[in-house]
Design brief:
- By secondary structure, the chain is an all-alpha fold.
- The chain contains 16 helices and 5 strands.
- Helix 3 packs across helix 8, helix 10 crosses helix 16 and helix 12 packs across helix 13.
- The two termini are 30 Å apart.
- The model has no long low-confidence stretch (mean pLDDT 96).
Length: 408
């Protein structure tokens, strides 16, 4: 779908500006940075309260230190503006729907505003009001405080923060036809600008594989062609990574090694993540997670909904034999910045034999045998999904943002 370039230019500034966080200390780009494949290079991210960027990010100090790891891996942002996308987040808790009269089924239910230009715009408002991602802890700032009333009471606070900055106010008036004065800017326009930027900046449809599909038979090496044959053939990868998006947008249980705080529900007796079931309340959805798209996948390590594997070979080998891979997996494979004050939680789920058994039994994939050479060919093919223009995006990183806050 098409997005307005003036709105995208405005969204670029907002994406890198920490003004959208409760304590003004973290931006969207902190966990989705272009230098890190639009992710953060960590298995589980360090959100509000942390310092630094990527694998060098630390968990903070003293009263400002983080209180919890982000429960899931920060996904890449490639091609999220595609019109075919109907579901977002690892557990699909945001989807297109008329259930609440605003176009989406979301955590905000009927309190989600109307007027978003895409599902990507609707998604953009939720990290802003997530305590451990960007909002901060209760009593630290007015955004976090408002959240304990109702989710939609925090968004007007953030919108006012932005629109009272003269440069932002002027840019919104210039970019949006229906905005004639800065005071009219709401979280919807902010989200629409963010979505326009992400969709334009990280559209990737010019990989060697795309060129090959367009008729350039020289775009892929012999090894990559052999890897493609495995991907669409005996490797059975395309049974889930299908279509133009290389994702069926559905949910599957892969039996990945669990760790971290989990995305626990109120009544969960342990730190765990039940995946899609937390959204659907259907037992058959237990431990299922959304199939990721694969454009630029070689840039977006680590892999899995919790970043369990540091490289593509490890992730592929897990798909081939999940139970055997679980036995071989070691905690050192997870990229988890040191946080001694809650490190005992990181792998506590492994002490619950019943829970581990449940997770290992919930598998939607059958074992597949591939040789070591086949796996190397498959990795090489996945490398051919990297876009030719990823190093020269339309906008790039700004040198400064209107709030005057420092950039990461």
């Amino acid at each position: 779908m098409s997005f307005n370039r003036d709105q995208a230019a405005l969204g670029q500034l907002l994406f890198y500006d920490k003004i959208l966080s409760g304590n003004r200390n973290i931006s969207c780009s902190t966990c989705h940075h272009p230098d890190l494949g639009t992710g953060d290079g960590l298995s589980l991210g360090i959100g509000e309260g942390g310092t630094g960027l990527g694998p060098e990010r630390t968990a903070g100090r003293g009263e400002n230190r983080i209180r919890k790891r982000i429960p899931r891996n920060a996904p890449g942002l490639w091609n999220l503006g595609a019109r075919d996308i109907d579901t977002l987040f690892h557990d699909g808790r945001l989807s297109r729907s008329d259930s609440y009269g605003n176009g989406f089924n979301s955590p905000a239910e009927e309190w989600l505003p109307k007027g978003f230009n895409s599902i990507l715009a609707a998604q953009a408002v939720f990290p802003l009001v997530a305590q451990f991602e960007m909002a901060g802890n209760p009593r630290e700032n007015e955004v976090a405080g408002a959240l304990h009333d109702r989710i939609d009471t925090a968004w007007p606070i953030l919108a006012k923060r932005v629109r009272v900055i003269p440069e932002y106010g002027d840019r919104f008036v210039a970019a949006f036809d229906h905005i004639t004065a800065a005071k009219q800017v709401t979280i919807v326009e902010i989200a629409n600008a963010l979505a326009a930027f992400m969709a334009v900046e990280w559209q990737s449809i010019d990989s060697p594989f795309d060129q090959f599909l367009a008729g350039d038979t020289s775009a892929l090496t012999e090894t990559q062609i052999a890897g493609a044959d495995i991907f669409y053939g005996k490797g059975k990868c395309a049974s889930c990574h299908s279509g133009r998006l290389l994702s069926d947008q559905s949910f599957h249980a892969l039996g990945l090694p669990p760790f971290g705080p989990g995305r626990t529900r109120r009544f969960d007796p342990m730190a765990r993540d039940v995946g899609r079931m937390a959204e659907s309340d259907a037992l058959e959805d237990a431990y299922k997670f959304r199939t990721p798209m694969l454009r630029n996948v070689a840039l977006t390590a680590p892999y899995g909904h919790n970043g369990a594997y540091p490289d593509l070979e490890g992730m592929i080998r897990h798909h081939l034999d999940p139970r055997a891979a679980m036995v071989k997996w070691r905690p050192a494979m997870a990229a988890l910045p040191l946080a001694p004050w809650f490190s005992d939680i990181d792998f506590v789920v492994w002490q619950d034999q019943r829970e581990m058994h449940r997770q290992q039994q919930a598998l939607d994939i059958d074992s597949v045998w591939l040789s070591d050479d086949d796996i190397r060919r498959l990795v090489d093919f996945l490398g051919s999904l990297t876009g030719s223009s990823v190093s020269a995006p339309p906008f790039g990183e700004p040198t400064a943002v209107p709030s005057g806050l420092p950039l990461d």
